[in-house]
# Entry
Amino acid sequence: MKFVIDHDFHIHSFLSLCSKDENQTKEAILAYAKKNGLKKICLTDHVWDTNVCSFTGTHFYAYQTIPHIRQALPLPQAEGVEFYFGCETDMDKFLRVGMARESFDQFDFVIIPTTHMHMGGFVIEWEDDSVERRAELYIKRLDALLDMDLPFEKIGIAHLTCSCIAAPVEKQLAVLQAIPDAELYRVFGRIARAGAGFELNEEIADYTAEQLPHIARYYRIAKECGCKFYLGSDAHNGRALDGAMKKFERMVDLFGLEESDKFRPLG
Ligand SMILES: [Zn+2]
Ligand SMILES: [Zn+2]
# Structure
């Protein structure tokens, strides 16, 4: 049976500094779920736990603390829609995850991207700019995450292909192409065995027919490794919510996903 589009586990509200959309409220997000027949959605604002370390001044994560994003609670509910409370944390250049082990209990679901490499100086050193170095870090950072003792059954790994890996798109694809199949089978096999989710958050329409196979290779190998997938719009505003269903359909079709490939962290 074809993968059913019935959830979105990666959605930001205005509590994420990068949303810049005061209309991106929890009520607007619930309305999006109702309109599109989604049965489970999860709010995932950006967060860095001060139990790991604190940031000050204009640092993005000085603003994105756990008490800050908990202002969204309680979440509104509607018949037929379960609205969960999660977050999107990060991994810094010292390979620290931005959530203390005991803080995971405060969330239904935690997204951890290892590839926020657009955050120069924080996620990677500024000099780590070459294609080779970014490819090396892609693998090193995933291995570091999977070496940790974390509740992987409620963790989603985001942006395994994404413009945040490198820009422009030609450079992103060069990084992805620099990692051989064997290395992907090894690390994606680790994701499958850990039981973490593999996020589906690509805008297929942004790539040319020549570029798409380089993106699709990652999902094909992940699927062969037995990884389980979840949909994440990563919507930060209303326009992104409006486009989410089309984006989801294109991925499910291109990657040939089945219901048996679905990650089910929330029952
Ligand atoms: Zn992200
Ligand atoms: Zn996000």
Observations:
- Residues 10, 12, 88, 234 surround zinc ion (ligand 2) (CB under 6 Å).
- The longest strand covers residues 40-46.
